[in-house]
Amino acid sequence: MSAPVAPEADWDKAPGLLDGAKELTLGPAECDLAYWITSVAQGTLRERGVSGHHDNAVVPDFLKEPGPLREALILEFGFRALSEEFATRILGRYVTIAPGIPEMEFYATQLLDEARHARVFRNHLVELGHPAATLLDDIDDMAADYRRRVLEPVLEFTEDIVVAKSDFPGGVAVFAIVIEGVLAPAAELSERKWTPLSPATGEISRGTAIDEIRHLTVASTILRDHVAAHPEYRPRLLEILQAGARLWDEVPDREFVLPREELFQKGMQQHADLIGDYEVWPGVRMLDTTPEQRYDMAERWTDEMAEARMAYMGLPVEALAAPGKQA
């Protein structure tokens, strides 16, 4: 008899990323290796382990033909694949410096999650018709500027904390509250955008979002408990969060997101019949939104998530404020 799947990892029962990240409480002792094997590998990923989507969730033919929607998706998933690859590589250090077995097991599973995300994002481009033989080189070429101007500064900042200083709770804060805390709302938007257009793409985004709920909530519990046990660490934690907010104020993420949102805008107008009255968020038809509105909404979701998680940890949300870009 198989073990039951935890509700937050169940494909049909799991909440959306925003609600889950704001409302759920999970810790490393709950989300251990056994949890990952039963609830994630045999739950979330059941019949979706290879491609990230069910075989019945197909890629529509129009996404396999040249056009703005296909170009937007290649840019989005190409950049996300590279981001997840960077995440996978740095998480090996988290496993090394984890202070206990629960934390070690959890970050070992998160390393697998991020490696899987990178793989399904990359391989989805092959499903769109991109040549598999040149895929890795093509992603590197396509995202070279993004790697240099966005990912490498973030990686350098993280490595200083987890490699140079071996600061585990500081690394947890950087990865979850700063990096994933900023990127997760964009993942939520991705799921909402692609669901009415491509069942396969929507399912890939849904599966990765279910994982992100676990990553964000467990990290918040680790930090809450660490500050409660070591109140002297609180100033250091706030310092790291403030520095991370300043970093995100400096990297030109908007410069890379808006061009693909503009491509998406052209493409969704071409396929307006498929979208119809679909609401990308309550009360707002996706067809009525602009690239800037979608980007701004993702930033608003970032604020909402930050407020909820910081309150859970007993920390002031103002620590994530940075001029010119909200944390």
Task: Tell me briefly what this model is.
The chain has helices at 17-23, 33-44, 68-97, 101-127, 135-142, 144-164, 168-194, 199-229, 234-250, 253-270, 272-275, 291-313, and strands spanning 279-281, 284-285. The chain has 327 residues and is mostly helical. The chain has a two-stranded antiparallel sheet.
Provide structural commentary.
The chain is an all-alpha fold and 327 residues long. The chain has a single domain, classed as Ribonucleotide Reductase, subunit A (Orthogonal Bundle), CATH 1.10.620.20. It has helices at 17-23, 33-44, 68-97, 101-127, 135-142, 144-164, 168-194, 199-229, 234-250, 253-270, 272-275, 291-313; strands at residues 279-281, 284-285. A two-stranded antiparallel sheet has the order 1-2. A hairpin with a 2-residue loop joins strand 1 (279-281) and strand 2 (284-285). Helix 3 (68-97) crosses helix 10, helix 7 (168-194) packs antiparallel against helix 8 and helix 7 (168-194) packs antiparallel against helix 12. The longest helix is centred in the middle third of the chain and has 31 residues, at 199-229. The protein starts with 16 loop residues before the first helix and ends in a 14-residue tail after the last helix. Residues 323-327 have low confidence and may be disordered.
Index terms:
single chain; 69% helix; two-stranded antiparallel sheet; globular; Ribonucleotide Reductase, subunit A
What's the arrangement of secondary structure elements?
Elements: H1 17-23, H2 33-44, H3 68-97, H4 101-127, H5 135-142, H6 144-164, H7 168-194, H8 199-229, H9 234-250, H10 253-270, H11 272-275, E1 279-281, E2 284-285, H12 291-313
Helix pairs in contact: 1-8, 1-12, 3-4, 3-6, 3-10, 4-8, 5-6, 6-7, 7-8, 7-9, 7-12, 8-12, 10-12
